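Anyone up for a design puzzle?
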């Protein structure tokens, strides 16, 4: 009887070790995850900063070069003297008076 109990225990151990169980992998986070709560009231505004230094004035630019003076154009030719025309005087007679009614 001692042998049968021992043999049963060995067979049971063999069967249990022969089961194909896949290992379960559990990822443990390296850091603790913190879930943020509701936002608190806003803090008071900071003081205004100091104004910066004013920059130096820049150098004035060089004066440009004056352009060359233009050449005067040629004088035109004088026209011919006009001919004297014939003078005709037309005298119109006075208008006739309107008839009385």
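Challenge accepted. My sequence:
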């Amino acid at each position: 009887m001692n042998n049968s109990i021992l043999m049963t225990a060995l067979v049971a151990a063999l069967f249990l070790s022969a089961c194909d169980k896949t290992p379960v992998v559990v990822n443990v986070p390296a850091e603790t995850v913190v879930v943020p709560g509701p936002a608190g009231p806003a803090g008071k505004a900071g003081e205004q900063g100091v104004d910066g230094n004013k920059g130096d004035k820049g150098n004035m630019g060089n004066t440009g070069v004056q352009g060359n003076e233009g050449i005067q154009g040629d004088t035109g030719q004088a026209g011919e003297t006009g001919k004297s025309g014939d003078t005709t005087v037309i005298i119109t007679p006075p208008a006739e008076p309107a008839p009385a009614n």
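A detail worth pointing out: The two ends are 176 Å apart (CA to CA).
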